[in-house]
Amino acid sequence: MLGSHDNQRNISLVSFGIKPRRLSGNRNGDFTKALSALLPYIVACSAVASLVQPATFTWVSKEYYAPALGGIMLSIGVQLSLKDFEIVLTRPKPVLVGYIAQYVLKPLLGVLLVKLFNVPAAFAAGFILTASVAGAQLSSYASFLSEGDVALSIILTSLSTITSAIVTPMLTWLLIGSVVPVDGIAMAKSILQIVLCPVMLGLTLNTYAKPVVDVIRPFMPVVAMVCTSMCIGSPLALNRAQVVSSQGLQLLVPVVAFHVAAFAAGYWMAKIPVISLDEKSTRTLSLCTGMQSSTLAGLLATQFLGGTHAVPAACSVVVMAIIGLSLASFWGSGNSLSAFLRKTEKRACYWKLHTNTTSC
Length: 360
Known about the structure:
Layout: H1 27-37, H2 39-52, H3 65-77, H4 87-90, H5 92-116, H6 121-130, H7 138-145, H8 150-176, H9 184-208, H10 210-216, H11 220-238, H12 240-243, H13 246-270, H14 279-290, H15 294-304, H16 311-332, H17 337-355
């Protein structure tokens, strides 16, 4: 199954759906893991380059967005199989909780933060759209780093991606249709073309043409990284003036607040007594809730809302990768949030006693 790991902890580039073949010494597995670790740096470098040297990405017009995102989606599809979806039937509760967090909790959180932070009109619709798209492919790799439930992450991302053709246009029409004109039918067709079709093509190839998949699979990590870089750098470069303006810099605060709140909400939602999921599933739901396909949001914003509305999505990719992978590394190092909070409380108590400010 996609994202599974063996006793030697050999893992695929699950953020892009790439599964390494077992070679002598696991050298190929080590290579893909090393390549996966470069992703946050690629994201950060793309963002910096687009703002410092806009010409690096200004040539990437919106006509290239759909093929770029389609390449990322194809890399997911070539690793999927029909058996992967059996988890929906065998483990419905975590899947249902994660899906509700993805398409109910996060869109409402996006609307709340837009009003709370008074996000400028040039970015508001794009911000809400970013909160209403499918889960991020990167969340699967983050789940592995956190020693979470990678299979659950894969199925949540796949399910939210496939159903996004219906859900995202509906949410967009409901939440921002009164702010900017939204053609829900055209948006659904666009998602079908750039998301569902590449995923289904990859699934078909992996089912009926495995030799073809074996040939193209080694190239998919690089393809996906290039496509991700294009989808991040282009909207930032083309809208650089708005990004570095006072209004654009103010956008950074609500974007960070959105992701921090989403990571926290996903974690504590899974801890509710009536739900009470295990720690591995809880970590996975936190990462899946805090990370979404901002590249898809950027493409849809460019096509249907206007160029400036793609800026929140581009900022979201950078913030999401940094916070998500940092949190995953924190968990993967053997730490836990409960232990961290207890340690923080003890330190605060010691400081209060030491300074004689109050008692603990």
